[in-house]
Amino acid sequence: MITPLDLTDRALAARVLTIQHAAYAVEAELIGFDGIPPLQEDLDGLMSSTELWLGRYDGPLLVGAIAYELSADSVEISRLIVDPAHARRGHGRALLDHLDRIAPRPVSLVSTGSANLPAVNLYKSRGYAPVGEVEVAPGIQITQFRRSGSAQR
């Protein structure tokens, strides 16, 4: 089940933060950089987020979430997190698919660590194409992806 998340609910936000820290710890290991901002975020910071959130549940347990921002012609995915204990089971793909259904836009944007191959492969499999790289720390690259509406799967 996928549903909107209200991060003003402290208990829910705490669960999201637990997943976020675990998921970004995996990415930090993959890319060799632990300065990822969501990895450093605290509960109050997460609860004050202005992003829209969707959560993926496995039964009663929240196992993943996606945060995004909308404009008239684009959706920008700012976070896609899956509890590492539930990774590689289609939860990330399901969140992306659900977002496509509820908020279709001509352009979708997302970025991830260039060395985070599971995320890179997921975005490429969903029709995203790399459009640039940014060095965020010495030797640490972030790949920016873009997908036009016609490329949605």
TrEMBL record:
<feature type="domain" description="N-acetyltransferase">
    <location>
        <begin position="7"/>
        <end position="147"/>
    </location>
</feature>
<protein>
    <submittedName>
        <fullName>GNAT family N-acetyltransferase</fullName>
    </submittedName>
</protein>
<dbReference type="InterPro" id="IPR000182">
    <property type="entry name" value="GNAT_dom"/>
</dbReference>
<dbReference type="Pfam" id="PF00583">
    <property type="entry name" value="Acetyltransf_1"/>
</dbReference>
<dbReference type="GO" id="GO:0016747">
    <property type="term" value="F:acyltransferase activity, transferring groups other than amino-acyl groups"/>
</dbReference>
<keyword id="KW-0808">Transferase</keyword>
<dbReference type="InterPro" id="IPR016181">
    <property type="entry name" value="Acyl_CoA_acyltransferase"/>
</dbReference>
